[in-house]
């Protein structure tokens, strides 16, 4: 039977351990694609992705493989994003599989993301095939890494395959292991339809393309389907598989991984993790594990040029078509004017969206410092959710404030344990656990406020461990903290876009750092500008931006007009990312400076 020949699997790995390279080798060995047809790193489709070397969009490819037993097998290789911001998407694409290839770099060994991915694979009951990659490297220590796989993950070290994705060693063994070890899908093709959405993509010509895995039942063009979470109904126009070209099929049935097109206009109707069922014969229960994606990090996006406001809204609307996790709503700032409050899954997601708006839509942005969502309990018994520090009520009205915490896992060589603990402590972390992976590497676990991670945790971690640390985190919920709102005044005017929420104990120190930083970043104006940090009415730090000594135009008086215009032009160029805030010209960097720690 066809279904017994299907193998659905993913490749999971810490970043740079060789996932994309191995995927390329597998594509070469299986599909009919020639080298020339195959673009480098086929699975990473978007340009931005390639530049950043990360995978943002999941993909699924159908491959056919002739095994040593002489039989032809159908592989569905499902790609997963490689960043903590997209953990939920990773977990759903793993839920579409029966097995996973776990790639571990033979020189680096197990890293934080290796473990995080293994936990996700185990949560989804996947068969895990460990592969030690890069054995061609002179620094490779396959035996040590095998032992680590056994000690830390609990997989038998005898089951580890040795490979070099780069030089093509061990690829046949990997493909045979996929056939032998990963179970074929099971399910009833005549039951009511149950298919899980693990990704979707907006196509300007076809509408939304839904990537899904059929778990029960069958779906074909003409069927009426219902999305169980959003309750939206659609008529199926086309189903098919990616080979990797989209190829139409008569139907998709149990075990199939492919796409569905059904005149869907908006990706938010096709939520990752949702169950697609038949509208006429619906299943009683959706598949387990659906969760609505909630943004964790918020910031304000404002056009530098007020005339770009409508273009910015159009850009956000276009991006939202393709990104169910992106949220935005209009926001007005006294300082910055009209803009949008936007919600993101994490910092990387935020940076990607900002970059796309600037590059693809050509809009210069002022971005305010990222904030998490605070739960504020008022003395009158009511509760507020605050995603913009400027909206924090006065201190007297607040009973207590809670902030989101994450469980952070850091893996480092022995020598850096002290540095990592010091950093976690400084970031208000609560120590949880520390384990030796082998005689030289340690796994350190802390619970840390998400806001501290959002600020500059990863950069400081990298620099204080010479890049040797690897890091991963997951949300664990809210905890009470002694937080206060700090306001910044420029020229005695409160600038709402510069307000931040800080821990009471570090407020004075942070205030001092921020006013100094602003003094450095804000160019001299025609007049002297005092910069103040306040808690409520109380000024806790101040600095002064001295007045400009010379007018740039002064030396042009009497000179020829074109030279004067050139100078003005030049000045405007330099001002590109400046915004006049009240009477003061403030550059983009100043809005991020409130995050500075020292
Ligand atoms: P990913 O981040 O897991 O997708 O990793 P990539 O496939 O992009 O590989 C990261 C880097 O490691 C690239 O420079 C690859 O050329 C290199 N690489 C991948 N596999 C091997 C291998 O088997 N041996 C060696 N020496 N380098 C490899
Ligand atoms: Mg990759």
UniProtKB/TrEMBL annotation:
Domain Tr-type G: start-end pairs: 4-186
Which reaction(s) does the protein catalyse, per the Swiss-Prot or TrEMBL entry? GTP + H2O = GDP + phosphate + H(+)
Compartment(s) of residence: Cell membrane
Q: What is this protein called?
A: Elongation factor 4
Main localization of the protein described in the UniProt heading: membrane
Per UniProt, the keywords (alphabetical) are: Cell membrane, GTP-binding, Hydrolase, Membrane, Nucleotide-binding, Protein biosynthesis
What organism is this sequence from? Answer: Evansella vedderi
SUPFAM superfamilies annotated for this entry? EF-G C-terminal domain-like, P-loop containing nucleoside triphosphate hydrolases, Translation proteins
Q: What does this protein do?
A: Required for accurate and efficient protein synthesis under certain stress conditions. May act as a fidelity factor of the translation reaction, by catalyzing a one-codon backward translocation of tRNAs on improperly translocated ribosomes. Back-translocation proceeds from a post-translocation (POST) complex to a pre-translocation (PRE) complex, thus giving elongation factor G a second chance to translocate the tRNAs correctly. Binds to ribosomes in a GTP-dependent manner.
Checking NCBIfam families in the record gives:
lepA, small_GTP
Annotated GTP binding sites: 16-21, 133-136
**Which superkingdom?**
Bacteria
Q: InterPro entries recorded for this chain?
A: EF-4, EFG_III/V, EFG_V-like, EFTu-like_2, G_TR_CS, LepA_C_sf, LepA_CTD, LepA_IV
């Amino acid at each position: 039977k066809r279904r017994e020949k299907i193998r659905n699997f993913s490749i999971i790995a810490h970043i740079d351990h060789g996932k994309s390279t191995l995927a390329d080798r597998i594509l070469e060995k299986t599909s009919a694609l020639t080298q020339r047809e195959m673009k480098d790193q086929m699975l990473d489709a978007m340009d931005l992705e390639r530049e950043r070397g990360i995978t943002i969009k999941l993909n699924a490819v159908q491959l056919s493989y002739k095994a040593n037993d002489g039989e032809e097998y159908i592989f569905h290789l499902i790609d997963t994003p490689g960043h903590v911001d997209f953990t939920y998407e990773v977990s759903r694409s793993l839920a579409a599989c029966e097995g996973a290839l776990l790639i571990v770099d033979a020189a680096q060994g197990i890293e934080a993301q290796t473990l995080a991915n293994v936990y996700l694979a185990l949560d989804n009951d996947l068969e895990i095939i460990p592969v030690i990659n890069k054995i061609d490297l002179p620094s490779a220590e396959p035996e040590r890494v095998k032992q680590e796989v056994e000690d830390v993950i609990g997989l038998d070290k005898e089951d580890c395959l040795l490979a070099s994705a780069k030089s093509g060693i061990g690829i046949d063994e990997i493909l045979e292991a996929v056939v032998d070890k990963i179970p074929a899908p099971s399910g009833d093709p005549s039951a009511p339809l149950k298919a899980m959405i693990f990704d979707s993509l907006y196509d300007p010509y076809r509408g939304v393309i839904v990537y899904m895995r059929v778990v029960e039942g069958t779906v074909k063009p003409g069927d009426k389907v219902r999305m169980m979470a959003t309750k939206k109904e659609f008529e199926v126009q086309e189903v098919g598989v990616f080979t990797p070209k989209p190829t139409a099929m008569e139907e998709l049935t149990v075990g199939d991984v492919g796409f569905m097109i059904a005149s869907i206009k908006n990706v938010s109707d096709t939520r990752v993790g949702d169950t697609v069922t038949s509208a006429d014969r619906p299943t009683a229960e959706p598949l387990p594990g659906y969760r609505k994606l909630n943004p964790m990090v918020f910031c304000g996006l404002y056009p530098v040029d007020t005339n770009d406001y409508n273009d910015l809204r159009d850009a956000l609307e276009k991006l939202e078509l393709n990104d169910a996790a992106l949220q935005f709503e209009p926001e007005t700032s006294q300082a910055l004017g009209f803009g949008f409050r936007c919600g993101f899954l994490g910092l990387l997601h935020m940076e990607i969206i900002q970059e796309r708006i600037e590059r693809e839509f050509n809009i210069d942005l002022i971005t305010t410092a990222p904030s998490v969502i605070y739960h504020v309990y008022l003395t009158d018994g009511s509760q507020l959710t605050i995603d913009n520090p400027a909206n924090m009520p006065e201190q007297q009205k607040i009973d207590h404030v809670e902030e989101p915490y994450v469980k952070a896992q850091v893996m480092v060589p022995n020598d850096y344990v002290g540095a990592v603990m010091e950093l976690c402590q400084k970031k208000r972390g609560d120590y949880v656990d520390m384990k030796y992976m082998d005689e030289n590497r340690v796994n350190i676990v802390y619970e840390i406020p998400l806001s501290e991670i959002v600020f500059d945790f990863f950069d400081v971690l990298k620099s204080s461990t010479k890049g040797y640390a690897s890091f991963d985190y997951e949300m664990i919920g809210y905890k009470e903290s002694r937080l206060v709102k700090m306001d910044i005044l420029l020229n005695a005017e409160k600038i709402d876009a510069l307000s931040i929420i800080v821990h009471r104990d570090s407020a004075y120190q942070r205030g001092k750092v921020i006013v100094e930083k602003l003094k450095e970043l804000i160019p001299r104006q025609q007049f002297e500008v005092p910069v103040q940090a306040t808690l409520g009415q109380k000024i806790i730090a101040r600095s002064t931006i001295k007045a400009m000594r010379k007018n740039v135009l002064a030396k042009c008086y009497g000179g020829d007009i074109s030279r004067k215009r050139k100078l003005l032009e030049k000045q405007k160029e330099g001002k590109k990312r400046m915004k006049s805030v009240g009477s003061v010209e403030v550059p983009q960097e100043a809005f991020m400076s409130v995050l500075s720690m020292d």
